[in-house]
Automatic annotation (TrEMBL), chain B:
Keyword terms, alphabetized: Amino-acid transport, Cell membrane, Membrane, Transmembrane, Transmembrane helix, Transport
Protein name: Branched-chain amino acid ABC transporter permease
Membrane topology: Multi-pass membrane protein
Classification via PANTHER family: AMINO ACID ABC TRANSPORTER PERMEASE PROTEIN, BRANCHED-CHAIN AMINO ACID TRANSPORT SYSTEM PERMEASE PROTEIN LIVH
Main location: membrane
Pfam families: BPD_transp_2
Native source species: Hoeflea poritis
């Protein structure tokens, strides 16, 4: 909640410009996630949310000082190095490994070997249905179950910071509700989280603070309880 | 009985072809790289075996203990320093670079060892055989090579589907970006895959050099056999590759039985027929 006298930043993004080849997708984006905080990033399609996630996880490299994780400058590191430091992501569209079984997907999530409370058993007690289907191909699961695997896979690395990229995309509302009900158990354990969402209501409900991106720039920033719907629509649509 | 003999010898020869093919199949499966230099690397391993054998005065089959780790190291370094830089959305650069590598290896070997055909002698084991009922004789050496090939393919299968390495190979093959997010350095994973491929190549090269004579230009022919075995068996299926190697070996020996000049032709015809009837090979991997 950021209630400490001097809030400690887990993630600090400072004037981030991101490019895909010659195309610039982010323009001077600055953002801060404090320890234990849940930050929502909202914005329309093409606003730069996924680019931001790719930049934080190292799938897109930038100048070193543009992204800081704790005291480390990680803007120019490779994704696997950043994963070892303790950032994990539940990627958009789940993106499980089709050649791996459910259990293998989870095991490979723990590949980085970071110790912590999240183990296979812990993931199975959070999502018991996965234990029944542990030996099945990950592609044989329903969309909601696949999303559980994707979340479990990210948890297995015991990250300090967990990024959720559009976890409600393409899922039935009842499934989205189930997934969101499980989230407090996931991020209530002192983990910090960034939640990228198109569903503004859910994003505002679950987060401590919210950032809105519009055409690659931060168009709104504030405490989730304090920003009004009008401010959000204005920042979201740019009207 | 000549025909039965031809078929049995063909099966045993198929084990060697499967070894030519297994490393090729592994690399294609993990990183979608078609290694045009694969055959030349087999011949390189044979020449390394020759050098080790003459320098130490040991049996060429024992030289595998030295050549295999050396080839593995060459594979890892080659992948990290050269081949990783060619991988991307475009499939042409790796083809061109491995083609160039093929030319370099052939000419390097020519410079070092001359164009003379070489052969390694494994001693008494080469002529030892067991008598089977019906007047058939089974050579101990071809049998040993076949059993080794089956064991190696079984081991590769185990590594690929049961071990942590295999999990990393499959994950990286599925989705390189997401595999990186799991903390897997794809450059390193690809390096390990190439190292494993060239360890198999080392065994194949030594077996080749013991079985027949070889010279620096022998590589492309082995590459074709390897390709054919992979395609006949179906891409991405190692046991299929073994079956592909056996079909190729048997066809060649049946061809040779009809007319000694038809050995290679018969193998290629069998390959073309299977490609026409089953374009994805006999046992394609079921894509999930």
């Amino acid at each position: 909640m950021g209630s400490k006298p001097v809030p400690e930043a887990v993630l600090e993004i400072d004037g981030l410009d991101s490019f895909y080849g010659d195309f610039q997708a982010l323009f001077g984006v600055s953002m801060r996630v404090e320890r234990g905080e849940v930050v929502a990033v909202i914005g329309a399609n093409g606003a730069g949310k996924s680019t931001l996630m790719r930049s934080v996880t190292g799938l897109l490299t930038n100048r070193p000082e543009m992204v800081r994780f704790g005291t480390a400058q990680i803007g120019a590191l490779r994704a696997d190095q950043i994963a070892h430091m303790g950032i994990a992501m539940v990627p958009e569209g789940r993106q499980l490994f089709p050649s791996l079984s459910v259990e293998e997907n989870l095991i490979i999530g723990g590949q980085a070997g970071r110790p912590g409370e999240w183990t296979l058993d812990a993931v199975y007690s959070l999502f018991p249905v996965l234990k029944e289907r542990r030996h099945q191909a990950s592609t044989s699961l329903s969309g909601g179950q696949q999303q559980m695997v994707a979340i479990g896979r990210a948890l297995m690395s015991n990250p300090e910071l967990l990024l959720f990229d559009e976890i409600s995309l393409g899922l039935a509302p009842i499934i989205i509700k189930t997934i969101y009900e499980a989230l407090p158990d996931v991020i209530g354990t002192g983990m910090s989280a960034v939640l990228v969402e198109q569903d503004i209501t859910r994003a505002v409900d679950i987060s401590d603070r919210v950032y809105c991106l519009q055409e690659g720039r931060v168009s709104l920033e504030g405490k989730s309880g304090e920003v009004s719907r009008e401010e959000i629509s204005k920042a979201y649509f740019g009207v | 009985m000549d025909w039965v003999n031809a078929i049995i010898q063909g099966i045993l020869l198929g084990g060697l072809y499967a070894l030519f093919a297994a490393g090729l199949s592994l690399i294609f499966g993990v990183m979608r790289l078609v290694n045009i230099a694969h055959g030349d690397l087999i011949v390189l391993a044979a020449f390394l075996g020759l050098t080790v054998t003459t320098a130490l005065g040991i049996n060429p089959l024992l030289s595998i203990a030295i050549v295999a780790p050396v080839m593995g190291l060459i594979g890892y370094v080659l992948q990290r320093v050269v081949l990783n830089r060619t991988l991307g959305d475009d499939i042409l650069p790796p083809l061109l670079v491995t083609f160039g590598l093929s030319v370099i290896i052939q000419n390097g070997l020519l410079e070092l060892y001359s164009a003379d055909p070489q052969k390694m002698s494994a001693g008494a084991i080469e002529t030892a055989s067991v008598a089977l009922p019906g007047g058939l004789n089974l050579g101990i050496l071809p049998l040993l090579m076949f059993v080794t090939a089956v064991l190696i393919i079984g081991a590769l299968q185990w590594i690929f589907y049961r071990s942590a390495w295999g999990r990393a190979f499959r994950a990286t093959s599925d989705n390189q970006d997401i595999a990186q997010l799991m903390g897997l350095n794809k450059s390193h994973v690809f390096g390990l895959a190439m190292a494993l491929s060239l360890v198999v190549v080392a065994v194949a090269g030594i077996f080749l050099g013991v079985r027949t004579s070889f010279d620096p230009s022998a590589g492309p022919g082995r590459l074709i056999f390897g390709f054919e075995a992979v395609i006949i068996g179906g891409l991405g299926n190692l046991w299929g590759t073994l079956a592909g190697g056996i079909i190729l070996g048997v066809s060649q020996n049946i061809g040779a039985q009809i007319n000694p000049g038809w050995q290679l032709l018969a193998g290629h015809i069998a390959f073309l027929v299977i490609l026409a009837v089953r374009p994805r090979g006999l046992f394609p991997r079921i894509d999930g």
